[in-house]
Amino acid sequence: MPDFSIYHTKDQVFEEVENLVKANGQIMKLDTLTISDEDSDPPYRSSMKVVTVEPGGHTRDHDKKMRLLLNYGEHGRELITVEVALRLLQILADPSAELERGDRPGGPGKARLKSLLHNTVFKIVPMENEKGRDLVEAGNLCERKNGRGVDTNRNWEVHWGHKEKDYDPNEEYPGTKPFSEPEAGALLALAGKFKPHVWMNAHSGMEALFMPYDHLPHIPSGDIAQATLQVLEKLNNVSCGGRCALGSGGKSVGYLAHGTATDYMYERLMVPLSFTWEIYGDNDAHFNDCFRMFNPVTHDAFDKVVTNWADAIFALLELLPSHPAIPRIHTASHRGGRKVDAGSARSGKGPSAGEKPGEEPLQDRQLGAAVQGWQSRMTDAARLRAQVFDAPGGRKGLIGGVCVALVAIVGFVVFARGGGRAAAAKRAARRKREEAAL
User: Fold this and answer.
1) Domain covering 10-437 assigned CATH 3.40.630.10 in the classification
2) Which listed site, 81, 244, 313, 323, has its alpha carbon 20 to 30 Å from 68?
3) CA–CA gap between residue 201 and residue 109 (Å, rounded)
4) Does an H or E element contain 68, and which?
């Protein structure tokens, strides 16, 4: 069983969350969503808690702020991710120590970090999969699925239901249809209303910083994706000591995953910075020791992981203004207590030649055009995908089959060339557990 002198139980997590929100009502708000499938037999019911944090104080309009949607505890056995969410909320409630670290060499400066926080709104889901967590605390330490046996990170619509050769329904059952699960449906509705610039889905089992795609062995093309990869490269150095696997989950893990939240956020909701962070893994754990495989087991290791990956959100925050998909309105800095446009702060100049005072700078217009072009390409890609995989009659099987075959061939080549020691270890461990059970 988990050492609950180190870890919080589910009830303790939510008690602490409620206390934090109650004590910091000027910047925090807690919503408890009732989620259910009343048509199933028996009905499936759960809940999902969402904490909204606005360090600059509550506002009705979030359009002029950077918006981050952070999801933890999607898989029941990955307790460490929930602990990171709790630590992050504690820091946001009292960011003074984090602000002091902003003055460290190479840091953004205390005033700059404070400005970034005040121009950001977070929506944090501390534990997506409450029913799966119940099963883990009842003794099923290898359970990752929800309360009725569905992996909610295979229940999203992009490439839903496609199965790899080593598909295991005990691990990756995607449900009866896209968004059959209330957890996935609730996150979809939340993201659709919030319209985040950043989606981050936290997991454990290895150390990695992933971006789309999960169902293809490469990252998207274009300047936006390259800028996102550069953000991950910097985070890898700052927050992961250069150890993390980087890039496409479908390439770096060593197998393709279909119907994932991150691919949907990027491709359908057009969230420009869509991430999956794998924050811990023990490759030396015994194949039957799921808890150790996915969670640190000592106080020191626990504190190191939790502190490091809570701080990684602030490191990400510092990097966001450099990304072309983040509108310039969110990147104001301070100089001598006076707010200054970030472009002017860097250059020390006013409007460029040919620009009128108050007119949107040329660079901003160019960045805006780049983002619009990316959004247009994403819409076209989604339409093409629908045409290919939803083609009528026999064309669907033929065209879709050819595409799936090509993806499978590329994926096999990537895997054969050594994609993902940690993922291979996880899958080998799973096979050993299955053999031991026979």
Assistant:
1) yes
2) 244
3) 28
4) strand 66-71
The catalytic residue among 98, 130, 172, 278 is 278
**Which amino acid is located at 185 in the chain?**
G
Angle between the 130-137 and 79-93 helix axes, to the nearest 10 degrees? 120
DSSP letter at 196 equals -
The per-residue pLDDT for 166 is 84
Residue 279's beta-bridge partner residues? Answer: 207
Q: Which two tokens stand for residue 144?
A: 């990752």
Name the stretches of the chain with pLDDT < 70: 102-107, 328-438
Cβ-count burial 353-384 (b if 16+ within 10 Å, e if not): eeeeeeeeeeeeeebeebbeebeeebeeeeee
DSSP states of 83-137:
HHHHHHHHHHHSTHHHHHHTTSTTS--HHHHHHHHHTEEEEEES-S-HHHHHHHH
- pLDDT for residue 382: 55
**What are the DSSP calls for 346-365, one per residue?**
HH---SPTTPPTTSPPHHHH
CA distance 180 to 35: 12
Least Cα distance to 10 among 123, 124, 135, 122 occurs for 135
